[in-house]
Amino acid sequence: MMIAYRVLRGLARVALRWFYRDIEVVGIERVPATGPALLASNHPNALVDALVIGATLWRPVTLTAKATLLDYPITRAMLRLTGVVPLRRASDDAARDATGGIDPARNAGAFAAVLDALERNGMVLLFPEGKSHSDPALAPLKTGLARIALMARDERRLAQVPIVPIGLTFERKWQPRSRVVLHVGRPIEIGTEISNTPGGVVALTRRVDDGLRAVTLNFGTADEAERTIAVSAVLAEVLDEFRPLHAPDPPLARRVRLARRLGVVDLSAMQPRLAGRIERFLSRLDSFEHLARRYRVAANDIEMSTRLAPGVWFLARESMLAGVTGPLAVWGRVNHWLPLRIARRVAVRSSRAPDEPAMRTIVAGLVLVIAFYATQTVAVAWSTHWGVALLYAATLPVSATWDFVYADRRRRAVQRVRTYLLFRRSPAVRRQLLEELAWLRGEAAALDSAVGGESSRGDRR
């Protein structure tokens, strides 16, 4: 089973690398290097959440998943091969039972399997929200995780079973080549002061909720979430610096931190003068965004050099890269365009919720790509011999990976060439953007200090 787990984890890493542009990890050092541990994650993106965590952490992870995934042949085979523990949700049981009856012991076997894994010093991943969703805040947590933690302490005599909060934030979870942040929070140690009683279970669940809220974004409404995240995206670029082409965008983790900070700003509780100043800043930031969009300029590209020598070097370097590695990218595109396009179309057409397209694209893509690989390899072996066929097969995943990476780079390179030519042709546009950028940066720093001072005075009051 461990061999199957490692093989599927390797496939998951490749699939995630193809679908998402980057998975940023914050606080990885907080994951225990040894010993049992419970990982408690939010659940915004169905099966993809488990894939991201399992593929990112270096230690093997015993995964849990809703038992309804066993209804589908492909996911059923994957779950059984990797030793996933299926959990039956009360809502699923009620939906299947015409009488609405729910078996209180429905997960006894699953709990025992989780405790066995902990007793073997394993890490187990649980989703205490109990469902995958697209709500702007955490759903109320189920008590199962807390009960398991206390059972591990009292029934299995495990002295230390920390609960590690993990926050997943997707830039646009349904969209290929977007990004993900995996944020590991501070482990929650379970002492003897928490009793294995209904009150103790509720208290521990509340601590897990606090830990998860510290590593996730939580808003009152979907409109508030959309507005805050949009502002944080623009602000992250405004405060950023000119970046190398292989990593041209500010880290998504920085944008998430800004969104979390903006989310706690309450204008109604501030002095009118400071609140008005913040509103003027946001209005000017919005105007700047529209100006940059009008000229199709990224905010962190505004400070690029417009001298001739850097421009010539940029063109020569990217032309040389295209000449040397472009054929590899073309080879990857030729061999993967059809299966991946079919997988994406099937996934989008069959999805009914925002947390389904990515999962279905990845699963369908894996199946179709492997089928295409097998077909191509057999065809090459039949026309030549197996040595050539195996060499041919080895080039396929490498070329696909480079195609994705190079396509991202080429897209941004074209944008920078367009910006460079615009600034060379219209220096007044660049001066206008630079002036706005300087004002926004200065005002952002001043407001950050003023809001911090206001919060301190509020705390003292």
Describe the overall structure:
- The protein is 61% helix and 8% strand.
- It is α/β, with parallel strands linked by helices and 461 residues long.
- The protein folds into three domains: 2-93 and 106-213, 3-Layer(aba) Sandwich (Glycerol-3-phosphate (1)-acyltransferase), CATH 3.40.1130.10; 222-303 and 428-460, no CATH class; 308-425, no CATH class.
- The strands form two sheets. A six-stranded mixed sheet has the order 1-8-7-2-6-3, with helices on both faces. A two-stranded parallel ribbon has the order 4-5.
- α3 (73-81) links the parallel β4 and β5 (85-87).
- The longest helix is centred in the C-terminal third of the chain and has 43 residues, at 308-350.
- The termini are far apart.
Please name the defining characteristics of this protein.
single chain; 461 residues; alpha/beta; Glycerol-3-phosphate (1)-acyltransferase; 3 domains; six-stranded mixed beta sheet; two-stranded parallel ribbon; 14 helices; 61% helix; 8% strand; flat
Would you spell out the secondary-structure blueprint of this structure?
Elements: H1 2-19, E1 22-26, E2 37-41, H2 47-56, E3 61-62, E4 64-66, H3 73-81, E5 85-87, H4 90-96, H5 108-119, E6 123-126, H6 144-154, E7 163-170, E8 179-184, H7 198-213, H8 222-238, H9 252-263, H10 272-295, H11 308-350, H12 357-383, H13 386-425, H14 427-460
Parallel strand pairs: 1-8, 2-6, 2-7, 3-6, 4-5
Antiparallel strand pairs: 7-8
Helix pairs in contact: 1-2, 1-12, 6-7, 8-9, 10-14, 11-12, 11-13, 12-13, 13-14
